Amino acid sequence: MPEQQPPYLRIADELRRRIAEHEWEPGDRLPSRTQIGQECGVGENVVRRAQELLISQGVLEGRAGSGTYVAKPCQRVRVVRSSAREQGGGSPFGADMRALGKQGDWESRTEAKFPAPAEIAARLGIAEGDLCVRTVYEFLADGRPVQLSTSWEPYDLTGGTLVVLPEGGPHAGAGVVNRMAQIGVTVGHAVEQPEPRQATAEEASLLGIQKASLVTHIQRTYYSDEGRPVETADIIVPAALCEIVYEIPINR
Amino acid sequence: MPEQQPPYLRIADELRRRIAEHEWEPGDRLPSRTQIGQECGVGENVVRRAQELLISQGVLEGRAGSGTYVAKPCQRVRVVRSSAREQGGGSPFGADMRALGKQGDWESRTEAKFPAPAEIAARLGIAEGDLCVRTVYEFLADGRPVQLSTSWEPYDLTGGTLVVLPEGGPHAGAGVVNRMAQIGVTVGHAVEQPEPRQATAEEASLLGIQKASLVTHIQRTYYSDEGRPVETADIIVPAALCEIVYEIPINR
DNA sequence: TCGAATTTGTGCGTATGTATC
DNA sequence: GGATACATACGCACAAATTCG
After folding, report:
1. Where does the record place the HTH gntR-type domain (chains A, B) (predicted)?
2. So what's the pLDDT on residue B1?
3. Are A203 and A111 part of one and the same domain?
């Protein structure tokens, strides 16, 4: 006897086929699990497994208490990460949004004297417990949250200057590179380390995405031209909402 | 009554605690699930859920027919992606490995006249079905596979020249930038689009990683200084084995 | 306004497959 | 080849969310 496909995969293919044939359009609600189960001659649980698979692939979308829906292929926000992006006076995120013809806003909450946890201290080259300026961001494209970020700057670098608060004072929202330039610190390069992982429950709720869906967690650190870390951030980019693009010049 | 932690999370914390207290060292085999279940007063299935959670987080490692093991915190390979990496005569991957003091090898299989599928054609700016040179790579660090890649070059660009075959002829393994230079094509910049996803069964088997563990799928395209795409590749970087680092110079 | 019905989501158990020793 | 242990598939019960009368 040749090995045959397990039932839940057969149902998954069946659902995918019907969607491809436009039996259900994006945004439509599927029949209930019991209904599909009876129709296809399988248990309710098999349908659930099939739907869970398609949900994890972004084909379907489950809404508790309401139903299972065909996911809308929403246009993703293109997040460009390159040296060119840091030029000009505004914020990098604002530049991304302007390039897409979208409105870019953000909400932020700053704590001016936050003791550095061990990992952040290591990234900033300071001692654990040293004071930092910690800012939590929520970035919005056309009013919808699309990206999260938590930024850390050593307090002894900016304390007492006009740019202590990233989102306050005359240079609010100008971006790290521009703000550091105001106090005579030249940012020489940035290092970004993108790691794939699944969204936490809190992140999923803030971003309005399915639970445990995939995100890229970028650890970014800006260095002064003398090699000192001047800012580090944890940036959460949900795969369902954003595509990340690195542009790398090739010098020879 | 306040809501209490579900049993499987309690067991997960219990296992994590015991590992942290060195009751089991990295590489050790845990007791069987029935044994742990009896010891902790829960069903075997609860233990399984707890272990699955820790496996997905990379704390444990399951081996069918053998047991569940404490994962070894293996040193990850640092993959640097920057403009500087393309300088010098050798291959970018070889440079990464030399920087780590590891031996960098790779195996490849080239098909010289492969019709381009629709997606690749779009990325290379050619018509679907146009011929390409398609090369499948498996990159090894100290003999262990750590990265996969499938590369596509338009045949009409290199056909009839000495560098048709990426891994053959006098410039074998020199990297795209160097090989293109040999035929008078200057590579101006690269674009990389990293997407998080789960490894397929085939990828997991090739890389020797846990099934459905996380990888970064990078779509990379090299462009000539005239803006024409000269190569595109799909690169699979497993999170368990490699860390990706982008170095971005800040020009002002 | 409220509560009952519906639907998805979660936790957990059991049976079977399959790899390893 | 048998015993053991993990992996997978499937089923049931209940909780949570939503909808609607």
Report:
1. 5-73
2. 38
3. yes
| Residue A166 within any structural domain of the chain | yes
Exposure string over B218-245, b if 16+ CB within 10 A, otherwise e: bbbbbbbeeeebbbbbbbbbbbbbbbbb
What's the gap in Å between the CA of A170 and the closest CA on chain B?
A: 21
**Structural domain range at position A167:** 77-246
Using the structure, give the distance in angstroms from the CA atom of A236 to the C1' atom of D11, rounded to a whole number.
38
Of B81, B191, B216, the CB nearest to A196: B216
Distances (CA, A) of A92 to A177, A178, A187, A217: 10, 10, 14, 18
Same domain, A120 and A227: yes
**Domain count along chain A:** 2
Q: Please check whether residues B66 and B83 belong to one and the same domain.
A: no
Question: Read out DSSP for A137-185?
Answer: EEEEETTEEEEEEEEEEEHHHHTTSTTSSTTSSTTTTS-HHHHHHHTTP
Gyration radius (Cα) of chain A, Å = 23
Token output for A131: 């004071």
How do residues B113-169 score in pLDDT, each as one tens digit?
999 999 999 999 999 999 999 999 999 999 999 999 999 999 999 999 999 999 998
Residue A30 sits in the same domain as residue A83? no
Examine the domain organization and report whether A54 and A113 are in the same domain: no
- For residue A84, what are its two tokens? 């060119």
Summarize pLDDT for B1-38 with one digit per residue, the tens.
334 578 888 889 999 999 999 999 999 999 999 898 88
Tell me which residues of chain B have a C-beta less than 8 Å from any C-beta of chain A.
Answer: 56, 81-84, 86-87, 177, 181, 186-198, 214-216, 222, 239, 243-252
Q: What distance in Å separates the CA atoms of residue B193 and residue A79, rounded to the nearest whole number?
A: 10
Residues on chain A touching B194 (C-beta within 8 angstroms): 194, 216, 244, 246
Spatial separation of the C-alpha atoms in residues A21 and A15, rounded to whole Å:
10
